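Our consortium's second objective concerns turning raw sequence data into structural hypotheses that experimental partners can test. To show how far this objective has progressed, the report includes one record in full. It was chosen at random from the queue rather than selected for favorable results. The single chain below, 400 residues long, was entered without modification.
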Amino acid sequence: MEELVQQLATPGGKMVLLVLDGLGGLPHPETGKTELETARTPNLDALARKGSLGLHDPVAPGITPGSGPGHLGLFGYDPVKHLVGRGVLSALGVGLELGPQDVAARINFASMKDGVIVDRRAGRIPSEEGARLVEKLSQIRLPGVEIELKAEMQHRAVVVFRGEGLSPHVTDSDPQETGVPARRVEPTSSEPEAARMAEVANQFIAEVNRVLADEWPANTVLLRGFDRMPNLPSFQERYGVNPAVIAVYPMYRGLARLVGMTVLDAGQEISDEFDRLEAAWNDFDFFFVHVKPTDSAGEDGDFDRKVQVIEEVDAQIPRLLKLEPAAILVTGDHSTPALFRAHSWHPVPFLIASQWSRWENDCEGFGERACSRGQLGRVRAVDLMPLLLAHAGRLKKFGA
């Protein structure tokens, strides 16, 4: 299917992919409504009635995706075929250059007490604090390996290991839960390079723990997503578009950079992102606009804050419509229900709006229930880019 879409791609109108990270939710026990259904979204509701609705599975039914696979699916890349480690995405997002033998890993600053992880995100320390800690860790030296560290955002950072005989085939140290010790990094293959990489990673963590022994709440690190730079076909090659990304969080800029999108300054607030969209409108024909706080609120279990973020995005929709894009896709990369406090496997609502949409005249607005009855049904995330291209008049007829 990927090759077919590339063959059929043709010039056409401008497109916007607006991703509210972790958009999908679960019903609140007191109201029976999800975060999206609870939010006051008159603009998205109106867009839904003049658009087409559906649900998508980021990877496959029942599979809970990480942010990398979730977004690659939205970009039309099979996330199972094109699996990319989180470390690469973080490195690209903060502007690091990766050589073919470099191994990158994502860092979470975390809180450890009596050898047990009590907070995987160290209270979401401010970005300034994360930058200070990265500077403090820059003193670490390991024999035969060059280490490059860079802060990402809040509790997130990235480490790149450079040297001979390294491998990405190792496990994460992040246990993905609290109340347990961090895991040792272990090789996942029998190659000697994997064993050496595991040894290097564990030595690095031990040095971090020594350097941060007097710090709190960030007194350790969790590593995950070890990987090398992959070779993916670019968005331009795949779809014949000139794409740009507007995202506050570095990792999502890294995802977009991985497939050849131009990275635009996004500011810090949701309104800043739409300011940038307006300013760059004439320079590109595809825009990926990413909104992170919906996911953060869901992971924190904050139902009301997630509702508030959705309402903030809704307030910006008239600005988007004023630009008159040929087609708009609004969705999430996965579900992060506040009641679940984590990514989940639940299908994600989406809407596509263009002059060629079949109107959902009788729907109550943009929400999980309305999307479950939508005309576009339940599809895979990789099917959304072809749908968006078609609605923008950018896919030729197949066959005679």
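The partners drew two points from this record. The first strand starts at residue 15 and ends at 20. The chain has two domains: 2-84+232-391, 89-227. Both points have been shared with the crystallography group to help prioritize constructs.
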